[in-house]
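FAQ

Q: What does a record look like?
A: Structure on top, sequence underneath. For example:
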């Protein structure tokens, strides 16, 4: 009898577990489903933006080459000007002196040794003149080659610009069509998370590892371009996240923000997180928050192309500075945040 009661209790317990399990796991399943859909959408955005990103970086590399050749042209022109001035001076001196009178040198010499010394001096001057002429000719050839290279690069730049414009139009249409779906999924995910964790306020930005939130709240694409060459001998110290103009930019961690503007970064934001890490946002089209406290996931600005960014390639230049120190490659962090 006792064993029968125990068996009955076990059966009832199992029934209760089976009855409760679906409701307990439903919210989690919904969250996982929505997160998978968002990830799939982000992956589609990334694939759609590969050609766009390639075109952007190809144009950027051409700009770097143009800057390099421009510097070489300026240097060659400066050297040619200096050497030409020396040559003109020597021509004037020879004209005023009436040329080298070898007979006068022979007759005015006191002895044979003095005559040889004078002839050697004249010959040395003649060799210096020949060297100057040779240097002028060499610089003219170099300058012509640099000008030809520069002309070819400008032609390449025009082609690259046209290719980027075509890819920009295509990716803009792709991202625009995905934005509505992205917003819808983020809303649904926020609601599912709120239902799962009622004590937490619903947020459209879902934190990743260590509480970090992906800085662009919309469809976007990016590649690992850390260390890429920049004009002026600089290298790329961040990740360019390509997105449509006006897409919200959010705080990666809670902390304080300050804004500034420059010809290089355009409208920028420095976010100093509570843990001491610093995050740099550049090329913004506008600010949402200009100073003070912000929370992780809070909108602080919008994607743009201010500063030295191309108007046909709006993006967020994003940097990470652990403990406020030197910049590190953001790409691995960004991949974990998504």
């Amino acid at each position: 009898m006792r064993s029968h009661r125990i068996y009955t209790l076990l059966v009832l317990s199992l029934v209760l577990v089976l009855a409760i399990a679906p409701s307990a796991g439903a919210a989690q399943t919904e969250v996982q489903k929505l997160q998978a859909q968002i990830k799939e959408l982000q992956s589609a955005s990334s694939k759609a933006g590969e050609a766009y990103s390639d075109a952007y970086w190809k144009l950027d590399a051409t700009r770097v080459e143009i800057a390099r050749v421009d510097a070489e042209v300026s240097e060659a022109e400066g050297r040619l000007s200096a050497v030409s001035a020396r040559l003109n001076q020597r021509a004037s001196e020879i004209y005023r002196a009436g040329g080298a009178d070898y007979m006068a040198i022979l007759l005015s010499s006191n002895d044979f040794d003095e005559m040889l010394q004078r002839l050697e001096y004249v010959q040395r001057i003649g060799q210096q003149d020949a060297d100057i002429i040779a240097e002028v000719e060499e610089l003219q050839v170099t300058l012509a080659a640099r000008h030809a290279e520069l002309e070819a690069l400008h032609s390449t730049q025009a082609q690259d610009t046209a290719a980027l414009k075509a890819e920009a139009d295509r990716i803009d249409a792709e991202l625009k069509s995905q934005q509505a779906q992205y917003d819808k999924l983020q809303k649904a995910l926020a609601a599912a998370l709120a239902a799962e964790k009622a004590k937490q306020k619903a947020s459209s930005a879902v934190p990743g590892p260590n509480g970090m939130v992906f800085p662009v709240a919309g469809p976007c694409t990016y590649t690992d371009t850390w260390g890429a060459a920049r004009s002026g001998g600089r290298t790329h110290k961040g990740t360019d996240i390509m997105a449509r103009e006006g897409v919200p930019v959010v705080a990666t961690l809670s902390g304080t923000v300050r804004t500034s503007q420059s010809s290089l970064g355009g409208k920028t934001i420095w976010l100093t997180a509570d843990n001491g890490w610093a995050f740099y946002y550049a090329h913004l089209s506008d600010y949402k928050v200009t100073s003070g406290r912000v929370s992780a996931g809070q909108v602080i600005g919008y994607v743009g192309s201010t500063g030295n960014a191309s108007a046909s390639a709006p993006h967020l230049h994003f940097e990470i500075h652990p403990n406020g120190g030197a910049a590190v490659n953001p790409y691995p962090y960004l991949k974990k945040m998504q």
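Q: Is there anything notable about this one?
A: DSSP finds five helices and nine strands in the chain.
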